[in-house]
């Protein structure tokens, strides 16, 4: 420890702090005392008012104390060794619950379980008391959370940075069959996991004007406007099998002191209070859009607020020792999780030029070397483009700098392709179409050293379509692939203890938890019927658990022996939940026809595999067609589930409020996982990894990560269908100019919707129109028959349970590559240049 820190502390304080940094007692009695202490002294509860939630809080607080001991030493180690750190900047972290994750990562579940049992409660019950931390929408946010787990587990010197939204992802209720949104006030009670750092706070300016201080050399300053404070809240992130514990720093907006003072001095007491509210608005709510961009000023405010605070924090840490600015990229790698934090590129440039007086070119060189950028979508509607006027009003100095960056960049482009005005227009940071806007992806590309996609096909598409010009200009080496992964700790070890135990016993080791490649060892036992029996037993138990949850949330009774066919993810047209429910309608109509034709029970059972079609997912509140799809699913469910002709041959379930905790119950109980996006449109998909890891079979298009998963587990294990990404453009042109008629089964399904079989809702004609004929942008008609065929193949295999189980085992066994540990190692080695830094 640096001796100067010691100077102002007494010897006793110094010694006690040093001893107290870690090694909390892990025996049952100490744990009990620790928990009870928190009940009494942190929560001020007595034996008369201590409920389960209080006990959960006290238990979590005691676990947090363990984490903080580890956290302190970890951070001190990073500082002492002066290592290069990676900073993961993300507007979203979809973490979910933390207690069980921490208990398992610390390998202390046995002790806590016993300690609580003796105190008269059940640890598992306390897990359920925790509210999900839902600071994210879907794939991108959950990926960030998996990455934090892997970064900690692999001992990387990493920090996550995000926003502490007061309202996370909205809670979804289904009212009269339709989605209704409710606010998710997740920190209404004490959030036990966070440490407020009132002393770590930075000011953030908005609006105002740029003043020229001197012309030569040119010096400007940004003054006036509004100033708010960003206050840090730290969340410790434990790794598995390591004593390292890293930090997730979330910023909360508070009124700035100067700002308040001014109002108070003017005697405007109430006005000042109002202004307090205004500034706190910034971190109030997570924007609930997934894969779409909403050009709202408050969202840009959030983005700038976030990067301004984060960069000040990063630079403060960097400047703790005397350094040259050129060393910044040797000590700091900043990863941008999509373009959402990309205004940070301009902010760092501004800090270096305006606040530290660096010459532009020198500063720009340092900036580019420090940043790296991940793209998560090729959907045009998701690419961020901020209107010039809006950005210039909110961040006037940044707009100047964007023009400067663009001017210099376009000169290079011009030299590269003299006279090619089209390429200049395409690569410019400014889209000249009305209203003129800033293309944040272009900014992120030219302001970063590396750009990556999240699956092989996606990266290929980036290089050949939306980022083609840039790839040719900068060369291929700037563009990398980093196929997504998921953390095996949460998605197998925690979510599926039954399967985890089976795997550990067959591999005679639990090394797979930290090294998922070990799963391949299951293949050696593939012909052993006892392994199949173990898999079958665990899957059935997980399906029973899921069936009980369906019974309690939806009031629908489902048969655990039926095939559980599951599509859980955000509702989006490109993901084609609509195609899924249309195929369910086809199945329903076929059952009805068979019954009408006089089929006996036995004949029905021979003709149809009993299925439960399960859906879950949220629609963005303003995304009308997504909401109509939910409406259709619930309408079909109402009819099918109450039709005595159908019985248990088919059930349809829409589970409300899909979130991380629900996913932890759903994936282990999945038989068949639907990954049926229109090819080329799902960048990667991560639910696919979670389901397959848990021994689900895959019905999928050749899209995103499914392609690589099929490769790893063997194409034979997967039910593939549909057009290839390379065929999609041609097929769309065909739909446009030579529209084919609906295939017969699709026509039938549509007719049933139209004739009111599932009720007469205003929504349905609009929904039908949205994908009929020339409007079929997502190629539902094109892929429909091949989808039905894949479903029939799945049914056939399900009838042969031995064959099914063999595929399920091979699916799990082939998932080693899709651990987020592998992904993170690749980022660390191929992009960031950071090395593991285990604690001293
Ligand atoms: C969200 C907002 C804007 C842009 C993209 C997203 C997003 O969540 N994209 C998703 O990212 C996941 C993680 O990389 C991918 O697995 C999904 O395919 C992609 O849709």
TrEMBL record:
It catalyses: [(1->4)-alpha-D-glucosyl](n) + phosphate = [(1->4)-alpha-D-glucosyl](n-1) + alpha-D-glucose 1-phosphate. Its cofactor is pyridoxal 5'-phosphate. Its EC number is 2.4.1.1. Coiled coil: none annotated. It comes from the Eukaryota. It is an enzyme of class 2 (transferase). The modification N6-(pyridoxal phosphate)lysine is found at residue 690. NCBIfam families: P_ylase. Allosteric enzyme that catalyzes the rate-limiting step in glycogen catabolism, the phosphorolytic cleavage of glycogen to produce glucose-1-phosphate, and plays a central role in maintaining cellular and organismal glucose homeostasis. PANTHER family: GLYCOGEN PHOSPHORYLASE (PTHR11468), GLYCOGEN PHOSPHORYLASE, LIVER FORM (PTHR11468:SF3). Belongs to the glycogen phosphorylase family. This is Alpha-1,4 glucan phosphorylase. It comes from Thecamonas trahens ATCC 50062.
